[in-house]
Amino acid sequence: MDSKQSNATKVLMLPWLAQGHITPFLELAKKLSTKDFHIYLCSTPIILTSIHNRISKTQSLSVELVPLHLPPTSPELPPHHHTTNGLPPHLLPTLMNAFDSASPEFSKLVQTLRPDLVIYDFLQPWAPTIASEFNIPAVEFVTTGAAVVSFFSFLAFKKPDVELPFPELQPLLGSFRNAQPNRPVDDGGGGKQTPMLECMKKSSKMILFNTFRELEGKYLDYLPISIEKKIVPIGPLVHETDHEENKDSAIMQWLGTKDELSTVFVSFGSESFLSKEEREEIAHGLELSGVNFIWVVRLLVGERTEVEEALPVGFLERIGQRGLVVDSWAPQAQILAHSSTCGFVSHCGWNSILESLKFGVPIIAMPMKHDQPISGKVVEDVGVGVEVKRDENRKLNRENIAQVIRKVVKDESGVRVRSKARELSEIIRMKGEKAIHGLVQEFVQLCNQGKTI
């Protein structure tokens, strides 16, 4: 594992075990590798296998994949489940415990690799603790939006008679008070802290965010008040793909037959799964909208049915060539970049939001779980999308789905949404490498000065 670039600054990265976290860490690794940094990207073997092909031969000289083996904490968690991708939901706490139990293994890696800097994620406060034992600075990289952290920081530090300063997020307060990122853990000093807050507290001087000021400026400004760290937005970091790669696929050929700005892309990420009832409402909503669509349908492992059988009876026959239903996967970046694409029906995973905005595609927000409802509110508040509202029982309605799709991509009332999405796309294009260039200077200074917490 010796560095192939002895004069380069060595950075050890440790993301959480979810694709939504792996992707921005990998993209940051690639960008730093062009600036005289040698990156050790550390994760479980199953995850490293899944991203191996996303690193070019040239990049592999400076981006080194380092396996982290989780201890066998449970027979229910074999190595192929050492990722949240495809993980049965009831095993998530088991995976989190196994990840925490891998801290001794991570300590050995730090001792062996002796990096100049550790970059870690939001749920492993033991990572910066281990780094400090070797007098190595450690910086947290938050892969979600700044609004999410602002929201949970408010809950954690809430004072009597102090209101959340973001009215758009007020409706979510009740449902998130007992959310997972706020579960208390021993802070080592007899008190209690949450993993999220403890990770922020232990970050050296700064905290990195995968966002940009034009999207989340007010949330970025709020964070230093409660966190007392320098907040450094370095986004958007999204998966860079070769748009020629899938141009001859059946999906892209089908999309190429559609008129410009005529088709919506429908996808709920790799880890969100629709119930049968939700699939029914979305199918009928797409049908009622009258808009062309590509719909990626993912079924839970163990759902013993074909995709066609999971949809309403006669649905595929009725929509004909107006819609394309895809099983499990589609080239998202290429679809969003295509001239025929005019909207994204999305679960509001943060990477999907950033990717959509990169290509100027407005969002039909349909958040599912975790931080997605917060991100959905941000999308609507900024004006780059419209949320499909659920009823008091969290149920979707087909007429409402159709109405929001038409508004965002066709109706006169959606002109400002479409214009705002294009505006942010232009901002992203103009930002280029500026954020990374500034970050390189910060890192070099931090490594030269030694650890400062």
What do you see in this structure?
Strand 11, helix 12 (315-319) and strand 12 (323-327) form a beta-alpha-beta unit. Helix 4 (103-113) runs parallel beside helix 5, helix 6 (146-156) packs parallel to helix 9 (213-227) and helix 11 (276-289) crosses helix 16. This protein has 453 residues and is of the alpha/beta class. It is 41% helix and 15% strand. The strands form three sheets. The chain has a seven-stranded parallel beta sheet with strand order 3-2-1-4-5-8-9, sandwiched between helices. It has helices at 19-33, 45-51, 92-101, 103-113, 126-133, 146-156, 173-176, 195-202, 213-227, 250-256, 276-289, 315-319, 332-337, 350-358, 372-382, 398-409, 415-431, 434-449, and strands spanning 9-14, 37-43, 63-67, 117-120, 138-142, 185-186, 192-193, 206-209, 230-233, 263-267, 292-297, 323-327, 341-346, 363-365, 385-387.
